[in-house]
Amino acid sequence: MVGPVRTEIRATFLCPSLLEIPVPTQRSKFLAINARLQIPLSELTFSFSRSSGPGGQNVNKVNTQVMLRFDVRASPSLTNTQKSLLLSKLRTRIDSLGRLRVISSRHRTQAANRNAATERFCELLAAALVRKKHRIKTKTSKAAKARRLRDKSRRADLKRDRGRPSMDD
Questions:
Q1: What is the Cα–Cα distance from 140 to 144, expressed in whole angstroms?
Q2: What would the pLDDT profile of 12-44 be if each residue is shown by its tens digit?
Q3: How many CA atoms lie within 13 A of 131 on its CB side?
Q4: Which of 37, 67, 84, 134 has the fewest CB neighbours in a 10 Å radius?
Q5: How is residue 53 annotated by DSSP?
Q6: Cα 78 from chain centroid (whole Å)
């Protein structure tokens, strides 16, 4: 039995969020992740193999599954802070060599899977680079504490009054 056939090519397509249909002759050679970050397409590597997804007999003959790889550690486009954020937040998708992998086999065609993988890559990076807002601790006001204790004692009095009357009353 012959294993999956893999071929490697360099990326020459735009992020689907910028353009719906990728065109290889486009001037822009960057993926816009957010307002401050653009990644050159030369840093992305695509590999193709046979997919187990939809496609009928086509699945057995054509390499439609797409694996996008991006070397986070070696990327000159990212700052050290961005690299550490990505390495920590996407650690389940990054291998021991520091490469981020995105796989797509959802569609029947290689081009559609390439677009899906690129779009997912953009989404992952954009979401991982968002910093959490720092929570500012607040203190409960004295009035709120007094109100809580007053309501608590009223509730206790109400429950105590439901019981049997004592001999003292």
A1: 7
A2: 344 444 333 343 444 568 878 887 888 888 888
A3: 6
A4: 134
A5: S
A6: 17
